[in-house]
């Protein structure tokens, strides 16, 4: 991943499948087409319907919080054709306790192609190797089987359950906490 000197520039990364990059204002036109009802179903803070103004607000916030070194919100492009297919975030970057929270969504048309699994792997590697975080974690609705699967495929473990913590669609949902620790030795 480039941009390694502690967030002086936004990091980018490319594999055969995905390219992670900073969100651009151009993306406001594509994002609303990707954020469909299927995508927001398991997301807690995502407005719906999702319009260009929502996308612009998100990109503004992403840029502000990147400057503050508090979060990294990556656009996920397909390497083969450069199409934007989703977003993956490392948020709540806490340099005191050395932790950060991951979150992600992929447009429905591109589900089950390994895109989230690969993107999560890249972001965790960046968090551990470059930012030297000790812990990454994710909070998932207990009914979100696909998300739980991609976290487990990336070595995250179940830490606990918050009962009836999210109220959505007139129902309460349990939230499952997942985490992975950086087991590499710290060099000082
Ligand atoms: C969760 C999400 C990001 C997964 O993205 P993706 O690119 O399709 O993920 P991948 O292709 O890397 O892996 C999906 C895995 O889940 C599995 N899966 C899919 N639907 C499933 C289901 N209903 N039950 C169990 N497993 C399921 C797939 O089989 C695959 O596992 P496998 O590789 O062992 O076969 C995507 O579904 C999404 O954006 N959902 C809406 C937003 C969301 O839930 N975000 C996460 C909030 S915590």
Give the topology string: H per helix, E per strand.
Answer: EEHHHEEEHEHEE
- Uncertain segments of ≥5 residues (pLDDT<50)? none
In order across it, which strands form the biggest sheet? 1-2-3-4-5-6-8-7
Give the fraction of residues assigned to helices.
25-40%
The ligands bound in this entry are: coenzyme A
Q: What is the CATH class name of one domain?
A: Alpha Beta
* Largest sheet entry: 8 strands, mixed
Proportion of β residues? Answer: 25-35%
| CATH homologous superfamily (4th level) name of one domain | Gcn5-related N-acetyltransferase (GNAT)
Helix count?
5
- The overall strand count is 8
The value of Rg in angstroms is 16 Å
CATH fold title of one domain: Aminopeptidase
Shape: globular
Which architecture of one domain would the CATH scheme give at its second level?
3-Layer(aba) Sandwich
Distance between the termini: 22 Å
Kindly state the mean pLDDT as a whole number? Answer: 95
